[in-house]
Amino acid sequence: MNTPENISNTPSVPLEKSDAQWREELTPEEYRVLRQAGTERPYTGEYWDTHTEGVYQCRACGSELFTSKEKFDSHCGWPSFWAPLAEGTVRYLHDRTMGMDRVEVRCATCDSHLGHVFEGEGYGTPTDQRFCINSISLRLVDPDDR
């Protein structure tokens, strides 16, 4: 896989909160996915089949991560984007869990787990990438309400 060049295993996180603070602010399921790198079941999340225009923010910290302009139907059961909103809004880590070699996507602001990015799957997108993101990691907002 031709992975993004800024893969890092060392977090450089500007927003720091204690585990107790995260547990207080997030629901148990949000905490499991965002802070413990869990995954929601496919075809169950709020945004997997949404076509509403707007900006997708990190559910944990509110940072803007993706827009509906980069969202596409991959039919994988999770929201899919072909690129993040801007350079530096997400960060990448090697993920070798579950016997796989993948690239994990995290919020660059709060280090919350978002999902994974895959390349070379043959989707007709400008980047040939699929950012497979958990709905529960995101909050869709109208661009006029920001």
TrEMBL record:
PANTHER family: METHIONINE SULFOXIDE REDUCTASE, METHIONINE-R-SULFOXIDE REDUCTASE B1. GO terms for molecular function: peptide-methionine (R)-S-oxide reductase activity. The keyword Oxidoreductase applies. Its EC number is 1.8.4.12. The keyword Thylakoid does not apply. InterPro entries: Met_Sox_Rdtase_MsrB, Met_Sox_Rdtase_MsrB_dom, Mss4-like_sf. Residues 19-143 form the MsrB domain. Keywords: Oxidoreductase. It comes from Paenarthrobacter histidinolovorans. It catalyses: L-methionyl-[protein] + [thioredoxin]-disulfide + H2O = L-methionyl-(R)-S-oxide-[protein] + [thioredoxin]-dithiol. This is peptide-methionine (R)-S-oxide reductase. It is an enzyme of class 1 (oxidoreductase). It holds the Pfam family SelR. The lineage of its organism: Bacteria, Bacillati, Actinomycetota, Actinomycetes, Micrococcales. Transmembrane segments: none annotated.
